[in-house]
Design a protein that fits this description.
82 residues; 2 helices; five-stranded antiparallel β-sheet
Length: 82
């Protein structure tokens, strides 16, 4: 019974894990440079590709902490204060 529940849980998480893609180092460098101009910073492990652009978690800015979404051109399309 427990093995079945664990297996089912793993299947639920699989699509989300498959969607997150590793971001190339040069793109992370560009994102970090853009954020520096905005007086923000993010750890590289908090940058994920989401198919249409990039998702940034725990971005620290001069005025607080945010989650951000960028489009493929690295423009901010969503910025939510945490």
């Amino acid at each position: 019974m427990i093995k079945t529940v664990l297996f089912a849980g793993a299947l639920v998480l699989l699509p989300a894990a498959a969607m997150a893609q590793e971001v190339p180092a040069d793109v992370v460098t560009k994102i970090q440079a853009m954020l520096t101009e905005m007086q923000c910073e993010v750890d590289a492990e908090n940058v994920e590709a989401d198919g249409e652009g990039y998702e940034l978690d725990d971005v620290f800015c001069a005025d607080g902490q945010y989650d951000m979404n960028l489009d493929a051109n690295l423009a901010v399309v969503d910025k939510k204060k945490e």
